[in-house]
Amino acid sequence: MVILRKGQIQLVDDEEQEHWVSASDAKRIKPMHPTSADGVEDMIRLGDLHEAGILHNLLIRYKKQMIYTFTGSILVAINPYQLLPIYDSTYIQQYKDKKIGEEPPHIFSIADNAYYFMKRELRNICVIISGESGAGKTESTKLILQFLAAVSGQHSWIEQQILEANPIMEAFGNAKTKRNDNSSRFGKYIDVHFSTKGIIQGANIEQYLLEKSRIVNQGDCVECDCTYDQDNRPIGDKEHFAVIRGAMKVLNFTEEEMGNIWQLVATVMHLGNLIFKETEKANLPVAHIGNKDGTTLAAAMLQVPAEGLEQALCNKSTVTRGEVVVSPISGSAAQDVCDAFVKGIYGRVFVWIVQKINKTIYKPPEDKKDKRLSIGVLDIFGFESFQINSFEQLCINFCNENLQQFFVHHIFKLEQAEYDKERIQWEHIEFKDNQEILDILSAKPLNIISLVDEESKFPKGTDLSMLQKLHNQHGTNPHYVMPKSSIVHEFGIVHFAGTVSYQAKGFLDKNRDTFSNDLFDLLSKSRSPFLLEIFKNDRTMTAETRKKSPTLALQFKKSLDELMLTLSQCQPFFVRCIKPNEHKEALTFDRELCTRQLRYSGMRETIRIRRAGYPIRHTFKEFVERYYVLQPGMIVAQVPDMKLAAKTLCTKVLGGHDWQIGNTKVFIKDADDLLLEELRDVALTTRVVLIQRWVRGFFQRRRFLRMRRAALVLQKNYRRHYAARRYKITVKRLEAEKLRKEEEERLKKQMRGEEARKEAERLHKERLAKIEQEQAEEAERIRNEAKRKRSEVIRMEEAAKNRLAEADKPVDDSKIVDQMFGFLPGREGVEPQGEVIGKVHTSEVEAEDLSQYKFAKFAATYFQGAATHNYIKRALRQPLLALKSEQDVQQAFVPLPAGQCASRPRAGCFGHMGHDSSGSLGICLNPKRPQLPQKAKENLGSGLKKKLYGTIKEGSLPRGEERRKESLRKRIASMTLKKKSKLSPDVVGAIEGGEDSAMTLQKTTTNLEKLHFIIGYGILKPELRDEIYCQICKQLIQNPVKDIPRQGLIKYIRCFISEGPPGYAPYCEERLCRTQVNGCRHQPPSWLELQATKSKKPLMLPITFMDGNTKTLLADSATTAKELCVELAEKIGLKDSFGFSLYIALFDKVSSLGSGGDHVMDAISQCEQYAKEMGAQERNAPWRLFFRKEIFAPWHTPSEDPVGTNLIYQQIVRGIKFGEYRCDRNEDMAALAGQQYYIEFGTELSQERLVALLPVSIPDSLLAPAGAQDKWVQMIATVFAKVRDGASCGPINSSVEVWCGGAVWRCGVEVWCGAQEIEEWIAEEKMEWIAQEKMEEWIAQEEIKAVRSF
Questions:
Q1: Cα–Cα distance, 125 to 115 (Å, whole number)
Q2: Which of 359, 652, 1236, 1336 has the largest count of CB atoms under 10 Å?
Q3: Quick count: other Cβ atoms within 10 Å of Cβ 854?
Q4: Contact 338, 271 (CB under 8 A)
Q5: How far apart are CA 182 and CA 134, in angstroms?
């Protein structure tokens, strides 16, 4: 305030606006009270107790982002319309176990006081959150539940389920409006149940009046602002939907149930898109649907006939004299029928969802004697007044009138009635009572609710007839507002928050809340079990009983009465939410809007009664029993007069404070109650310390006496030991002295007496010296032993100190990894050969926010018993997850003992498990084809995945031909690379047989074998994979030492990995995502993979082509044969890659990987195991990869694909040379060699070149006989001349043997067999060798698609 010349005064208001006031007007300005300058946390201490002072206090605190203010124990909360960082775990701990006033105002303070009042008084509590729509009631509810779940101290599944219920109900029951981004369109009372110790036991949710009109009527467009999470990151609809699905899974919604819900929601939307048109027939309006597609889709989802749905929507059936008459209806009537149908479906789906949630979160007490306490949180629709208000707004405002009356009754009526009853000194405070409004709405005879309900039951009742009855009955009531004109079909009610006008149109239909009997009959014929379930009660009713069922208004009134009865039996805590502006803008304070809300909430009267009143009251007995410790010498059992004792306590402790003694109770204020509690805590602490002192003294004295007795025993024994040792020495000396005398006597006989004495004395001294030397050596030995023990103790103490110091140091990730892979040798992997091409494969998993998939959340949701997500040293007593069989439970303890996780891998961190539990690791059977016999699985000869095919012959082969074939068969079979698993038969048998896993694990020698054993469990036991993953994660969280799960666990595992060591977390997560995309592995990790994981480098795989070139490709643990084949084809320019496959060879064995989804590292892992069994080391396994043609197709055109042609050509040349491909006649072999010469050298025939070509083209066995070379030269030259001259050399009539061939379709029949069976069938003359002419004939007739070579 600044005084200027000319007698004017300058004023600056709260918005920093300047105002000039004349000196005469300045006399009417009152100075601001000092408490109003900076604001107060509790408005009871406010000096300016008027509307302006209250508003100013809230304004200045709101500008400082202090959105909470106390009025005694009542909290005023102003919606900030922004996220404030005041709700994390730090604030929860700050407000835990703190009384109101000890910390700044906060919603957590109300929750904490409600919680501890319940525990202290053993009474049920209710928290009533009131305010207009958009004031922040729903968010306040969630914050209270968040606090209660945190302070209960258990962090259990049920707490997580209660918290996850809110997002589901909001998704289906809230709406975005102009006033509120998350407006509750239904009311809910969440009753959280506690044990007497304050541990959450369950919850129950009551829902009230879902507003369904918004389902069929869209309001004005609302701007779609972006939503943000607690870290201020934007959240889209996709993320919201993921959150909802996750919450539904936590609450035990099955995939089928969720699918049914989405299906009915989609049905609602399809029905909303229907367009009803109207035509006229026989002077009657006839409705029909303009877009039939919507009807078809909706009917399909409802599983009813589309014609029946259209008939029920566009016609009405009535029963006249026992006959059913079907009559058409107008387009508008059909639209109303459809709208009612849609609202009926959605409303019942919502009720079913709430019931499903309650079935999950409500846990009845196991023992009926167990007492349950509860804290109920009421989050219900706020007072509403729109441009168009209807039946829903009347019910909502009727509910708010009841809540306001409850507040008035509790704060004003009961308070002042109690004062009058106890006859204490009190000045009556006037307040605004809304009881008369409730009387006109529901209490008086012929009230508004009863009139609406009565008219709804009349068959001919209309909205206009209802409105007329309301005018006639209540037109003279001051709280009822008549319309200014009779053509305006509305009525008004003067509510406690303002006057609201209600449109009469649609009142009765909404109150009846039903739809046509034709649709009910149609739904009863639905094939959808879910739809029949949600309409279960309706299907049992007839048309007449539906008419007599309670209307929506009566149902709502009954539910509301039950709610008010529940609230009246609880100790209430109030939260008043204030909406600062209508535009949802942060830091914008609309004075007029806030003043109106403060005025109708009675905030000024509340402050007055809280300031002058005594909210805390105790009976004399309760007061004395609680606070007698403040009066030394007072014993409750010996107090003759409780009233006098209570007065004495108040006089001594409170002194001149404001307190009063009534007829039966002591009345004190909040501040005095806080003082009494603090003094009581101090007094109890003093007495507890005194008791502890004496108890500790007792135990210490007992310990001292025990130690003294022990010391006496030690002294006694030591003295005995010392005396015994001295005695032994004395005995030895006496024996030495005796011996000296005897020697002296003996020596006197041999020499003179003096000489004898001297000699005996010398010998005596020598004996004494020897005795002393033995004593010294014994003493030295004892000293050394004591010194050694003392140094050992010091060393152990130093080691313990070092371990503690190491635990406090930052974790060295590289050191941990080196320790984990310490069992691996130093070799770094395969050296690159040839050109290194390709790139490291990356997963195509869509990036998403995994922050909500914390492993702690998964543990709280799914772990059994009291298991947590943290590391423990002791062994598990039960599996973490619920397992189906007892055998699985016994085998769930396969991981290493607790505490070894950081230094030794507990399970398959590197190889991801597959789904084959048959024991034949590496086989991925096609479910559409018949499975091979077990013997064939164990000894396949055509590769890791490809089966052997052949045709069954009716007759037998000639004996000579059979012997030749037998020899060839044995040679080819000996070249086949047999499958070897890293899991030994003993281990596989132990796992599948259910033997003791711990004993089997102890039999393994190296850490690598233990790693393979645990991963083998995941491979062979799919039901244990999630258990293994969970045990790994649990033992890695907060450990001081430092496969693919199911879809429900995968994101939690990814989130867990992402929080690991920075150097390894991205690498491991990428490997997991790659395996998720490419499918499960079927073998434990190879040595090569472990080396790559240790160094975080990609695998380098050299691959050899049939022309002798080698390329090195980059790969990882999830790389498949298809990926390598595609990459190779791209890099070398191979246009037609059909039929080309990867092969792996080891020693003289070879096997096909194909070009599909087989994992390459599975094959390398098997090769390492084969090499190990052959006596070589795994890291030195000489495996080789080849890229070659496996399926020969008739459509290959050499000129269009020269690269492919060259590879095929080189493969055929080498195949003939080494016997892979055979010809029955030498002429056919010569023809092939002649063609080869033509390709290599052209048209000019050279004898030298032809001779040089023979070792390359002709098998050595054919060139070995004498004169064979000249013979072959002559034959090839003859064929070459024909080829050069253009003559045809005729068909090659050789027998091309389909041994490891491709699939042969003969007459549409596919013959499957394994290597073992083929050998047996050939031996039994059941296998037919297919000649090339026959195959060409089959190909021409399309009876055979392709031939695959060995």
A1: 8
A2: 1236
A3: 15
A4: yes
A5: 8
State the Cα–Cα distance between residues 745 and 763, nearest whole angstrom.
13
Query: Which single residue is written with the structure tokens 């046509």?
Result: 516
In angstroms, the CA 596 to CA 598 distance is 6
The pLDDT of residue 978 is above 70: no
Give the residue from 977, 908, 1350 showing the smallest Cα distance to 1166: 977
- 728 is written with which tokens? 């032994």
Residue type, 524: S
Provide mean pLDDT across the span 70-78: 90
Three-class SS string for 614-652? CCEEEEHHHHHHHHHHHCCCCCHHHCCCHHHHHHHHHHH
Each residue of 687-710: pLDDT tens digit?
A: 999 999 999 999 999 999 999 999
Both tokens assigned to 512? 């009846």
Nearest CA to 1113 among 1044, 1060, 1168, 1187? Answer: 1187
DSSP string, 803-821: HHHHHHSPP-HHHHHHHHT
If residue 466 lies in a helix (H) or strand (E), which one and from where to where?
helix 463-474
Return the structure tokens found at 755: 């000489």
Q: What sign has the CA pseudo-torsion 1105, 1109, 1113, 1117?
A: positive
Contact 620, 643 (CB under 8 A): yes
For 382-539, strand residue ranges (E) read 480-481, 490-495, 498-503
Q: Which residue has the higher pLDDT, 1035 or 1274?
A: 1274
Q: Is residue 160 within 8 Å of residue 203, measured between CB atoms? A: no
* Conformation bin of residue 1109: beta by default, left when phi > 0, alpha when psi is -120 to 50: beta
- Cβ atoms of residues 1155 and 1140 within 8 Å: yes
Q: Which residues have C-beta within 8 Å of that of residue 13, sequence separation ≥ 6?
A: 19
Above 70 in pLDDT, residue 27? no
Instruction: For residue 951, give the nearest of 1305, 1194, 1221, 1192 by alpha carbon.
Output: 1305
Identify the residue whose tokens are 């979160």. Answer: 361
DSSP 1199: G
The CA-atom distances, in angstroms, between 1163 and each of 566, 643, 1078, 1282 are: 69, 90, 15, 47
Question: Using an 8 Å Cβ cutoff, are 823 and 1006 in contact?
Answer: yes
Q: Rounding to the nearest 10 degrees, give the CA dihedral for residues 342, 348, 349, 353.
A: 160
Give first-to-last CA distance, the chain, whole Å: 102
For residues 497 and 389, what is the distance between their CA atoms, to the nearest angstrom? 15
Residue 832 identity (one-letter amino acid): P
Q: Residues near 729 by Cβ (< 8 Å), separated by ≥ 6?
A: 771, 775
Quick one: pLDDT at residue 742? 80
Specify whether the backbone of 842 is left (phi greater than 0), alpha (psi in -120 to 50) or beta. beta
pLDDT the model gives residue 729: 82
Residue 578 near residue 135, CB atoms below 8 Å: yes
Cβ atoms of 1152 and 946 within 8 Å: the answer is yes
Give a three-class secondary structure readout of 334-349: HHHHHHHHHHHHHHHH
d(CA 786, CA 784): 5
Q: Look-up: residue for tokens 């367009």?
A: 275
Farthest-apart Cα atoms in the chain, separation: 171
Rounded CA-CA distance 179/136 in Å is: 11
The CA-CA-CA angle for residues 63, 68, 73, to 5°, reads 150
d(Cα 636, Cα 866) in Å, to the nearest integer?
42
Active-site residues, by number, are 133-134, 138, 180, 183-184, 382, 384
DSSP summary character for residue 381: P
Phi-psi group of 462: left, alpha or beta (phi > 0 → left; psi -120 to 50 → alpha; rest → beta): beta
**This prediction's pTM:** 0.57
How long a stretch of residues is the chain? Answer: 1350
Q: Which of 657, 686, 1076, 1022 is nearest to 845 (CA)?
A: 1076
Task: Evaluate if residue 1247 carries a pLDDT over 80.
Answer: no
Q: Which of 403-407, 793-797, 849-853, 1271-1275 is predicted least confidently?
A: 849-853
